[in-house]
Amino acid sequence: MMEIRHLVTFIAIVEHEGFTKAAEHLGYAQSTITLHIKALEEEINYPLFDRIGKRVILTETGKKLLPHAKKMLDLYHMIKEVTAAQGELTGNIVISIGETLLIYRFPPIIEEFKRLHPLVNIEWHQLDSVYYKENLMQGKSDISFMLGTEIHDSNLYSEKLAEEPMMLLYPNSFELQRDIVQSNLLFTERGCGYRTLFEQCIEEYQIGITSNIEFWSIEAVKQSILSGMGISLLPRITVERELKDEKLSGQQYKQNLTTQLLYPKNKWISPQVEAFIEIVRKHASLW
Question: What percent of the chain has pLDDT over 70?
């Protein structure tokens, strides 16, 4: 007989690309994983996986079963959370978010949510600017928050929460008209929305390039500007204090980016996720 735990195992094998990693993720012995899949295959009378060398790939039947298995798990969680929704919220939320938003926008949101809903566990993931959609569609994240260009995708619900002004930033010793013809450019990592906009800004301002330096985080870029290493383009929210204290200089770029909420269309939103989104909307109305 088909059981929910068998479907959980099936999906875990797909998402973790193998029996061994799925067993580690679920905390099962590998023999248990094998028994779960055998039971599923006997129930539907078709194999779900092909073993090719060390690789495990879905059969055609497995590919057809996967979206239905995910829907059944969503329905199962919905049923379990009906009673929770009538009382104090419990459960988990998996959120993917960019570094800038987590540091500069979300601390008061997190504080309020944990105060109101202390039994809900939040698992935070670094937003992957390339694979964010894939991670959402595969259920690796419940919701995502992105600072970038507006997303228009027929498979995703997208809600703009705020316009984010972008600043061309440079050290106080930097004279824009004089030094822009020969500058060290401080880049964020490839794929980041700020980097793409900075490259556009370089062309428009005809900035002369002495060297390119790529950094792993917004904070590293900001500290490098403060130390006089070069110029960059960053969201204004990351440098509000430094601009106010006149520790660095800058001018607003003509194009803004947006902070937006993303999740798959037609996805059931659990009560705890809905509660988190409502708190985000409340705070975003003041940004």
Answer: 95
